[in-house]
What we know:
The chain contains 1 helix and no strands. The longest helix is centred in the middle third of the chain and has 50 residues.
Amino acid sequence: MTTESRIEQLEMKVSFQDDNIETLNSEIFDQQRKLQLLTEQVMHLVTKLKDAEPDTGGIDQVDMRPPHY
């Protein structure tokens, strides 16, 4: 194996690794964007659920006895 062929193989490997790194970076960026969007949606849903809950004055419905007791 000549020095030139070894250098050529190394250049091909570096090129392949650069391409893989760029692809992975792009995927991570997309996943981070999607995660941020999902986090915002969950926060919005939590806010809507809190607004929709009736105010029981701090008493849980589970702890309240029915009126016939």
